[in-house]
Each structure stands twice: as C-alpha cells, then as structure tokens.
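Quick start: read one record
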Amino acid sequence: MQTADEVIKYLLAGADAVMTTSALLRNGPAHLQSLLFRLEVRLRARDFVSITAIKGLMRPTLGAKAEARERDNYVQG
C-alpha cells in the first residue's frame, strides 16, 4: 500500500491488516508517519473516530446460505 486511500479501501472491504512493508522499504520509515497522518485526516473528514468504525462497511452481506457454506469451509479446511 502506497497511500492512505489504498489502506482505507482494504479496511472498508473488511481487512484486519494491510501490508505496507514494500512502501516503507521504498519510501523510508518516515512514510509510516505520513501514511498514518493522512489516514487520520481522511477518517476525521468523514466523521469516523477509528479504523474499527470503517472496517467491513463495504463488504457484501453473505446471506444465510453463504454464511453456512463459509462456516462449513472453515471446518473442512
């Protein structure tokens, strides 16, 4: 992830973690501070108080059958 917008997209989709290692290696450790600042600015601009508040907002609902299949796949896997 290079930008705060990319991080937000993954979080909206329900990601628990977002990989930023390559961006940090490319841009140096200061990039993390910049990324966090931009993420905070974008969240506050939309009146969200935390990352938890946006996590999974854009994830489609699965429905009862899909949820059962997801649980079954977890147990089988």
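Residues 30-45 form the longest helix (16 residues).
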